[in-house]
Amino acid sequence: NGRALPGCQRGGRRRRSADSIMAEQVALSRTQMCGILREELFWGNAFCQSDTHILAKRKIYPTIWWLFRDGLLTENTFIVGYAGSRLTVADILKQSEPFFKATAEEELKLENFFARNSYVAGQYDYQHLNSHMNALHRGSQANRLFYLALPSTVCEAVTKNIHESCMSQAGWNHIIVEKPFGRDLRSSERLSNHISLFHEDQIYRIEHYLGKEMVQNLMVLRFANRIFDSIWNWDHIACVILTFKEPHGTEGHGGCFDEFGIIRDVMQSHLLQILCLVAMEKPASTNSDDVRDEEVKVLKCISGVQANNVVLEGEATKRYKDDPMVPHGSTTTTFAAVRWVGVSFILRCGKALNERKAEVRLQFHDVAGDIFRQQCRCNELVIHLQPHEAVYIKMMTKKPGMFFNPEKAELDLTYGNRYKNVKLPGTYERLLLEVFCGSQMYFLRSDELREAWRIFTPLLHQMEQQKPQPIPYVYGKADELMKRVGFQHEGTYKWVNPHKL
């Protein structure tokens, strides 16, 4: 299907935002979407990304290849790598190819993909970069997408030079910015103020967790099912638990991790975004700004996190402090749990735990007037984000047999069973497609980012100034400490202040 989206125009002219036609896209099949994107991209794009390290070789280049392989990028799309390193296209692709997962049947297509790659080495000579892009198909008239896989310390200089020297003269210009978006409220606002050189509708602050299948499913579960609408409130839900667990430690990346810690790396970003999707009111539409307006409203209702509502755990000496990249005497937290006074939301995340898991768990109030001799347990709705996508409801049912005994069972929708022949696209695939379509629903807006940092900055500054000693936990056993402070999966959650233990 090669039809264009309503409102799309050729020749790089301004087109109607994909948000305004989101309702039309919802019903489209993958084949139809491929056709739409072919039409959208046909008139030429120069894709510029700058970084050749881990993110580039493991995520960015493989993702571009998968889009090309699936017919979502056309012959007139070109990929330009740009950095100070003296590399060649062959060097970059040699590093990236193991992550492409290309089959023998795809060898010819892979060669065609390689032929559309080029690399410019230089100490940020943007005039040279612009001349290189102008020599490609449609030159200065092409749409340009700049992917900045860069540390925030150089982001200001790079964006300034791109804005001054490399912008398309007739097509659209989009810029993708990777985390971290600063270290606290002040540094984040400084970065946001600088990249306001670009219009907000040109900026895509990528939060890769928003590209996950089950995270995107949260809105559909909430707002497309009448059965959940009437019970999604404080009168029925006792507690919401957002969990992010990794079984491994820092694995040689201790220096990088120690600079930011688990609160900045996961809690202030991944988990806070999920919290917004769980807690927000129904948006007026699926328009990006309608959705993000509701997310910002949630964040504005959350006061700054206080130290007495936080459990800080530092990983046991085994693994973390033995990492040669971790500074001596580090007090960086690797596990943390937060609860806001008056709101039963628990955010917990950590490394070196007993399993790999990310989930949203809603615990409902106990049944009033239990007539089954206190055998009833609370109902739970669990959305399993990774590694195995699933939605299941824990409920009470009669145990089969002669006696009238209730037991807990699950209504289980496991994607691996229900959708056996469906290939779920990767998070970066989804998000890059959103950028090409011009949709910003799954990207952070500047006011959303500001509110997120406002919530956590006081705590982060207090930790850095006072350097509290995290409570140690044995590798893989942080949950035992959580039980001591009142966290539990069964029954209605009751908070116990860890500072009074």
Automatic annotation (TrEMBL):
Residues 219-479 form the Glucose-6-phosphate dehydrogenase C-terminal domain. Residues 55-217 form the Glucose-6-phosphate dehydrogenase NAD-binding domain. The keyword NADP applies. It holds the Pfam family G6PD_C. The keyword Oxidoreductase applies. Coiled coil: none annotated. GO terms for molecular function: glucose-6-phosphate dehydrogenase activity; NADP binding. It comes from the Eukaryota. It catalyses: D-glucose 6-phosphate + NADP(+) = 6-phospho-D-glucono-1,5-lactone + NADPH + H(+). Keywords: Carbohydrate metabolism, Glucose metabolism, NADP, Oxidoreductase. PANTHER family: GLUCOSE-6-PHOSPHATE 1-DEHYDROGENASE, GLUCOSE-6-PHOSPHATE 1-DEHYDROGENASE G6PD. Belongs to the glucose-6-phosphate dehydrogenase family. Catalyzes the rate-limiting step of the oxidative pentose-phosphate pathway, which represents a route for the dissimilation of carbohydrates besides glycolysis. This is Glucose-6-phosphate 1-dehydrogenase. It comes from Cebus imitator. The lineage of its organism: Eukaryota, Metazoa, Chordata, Craniata, Vertebrata.
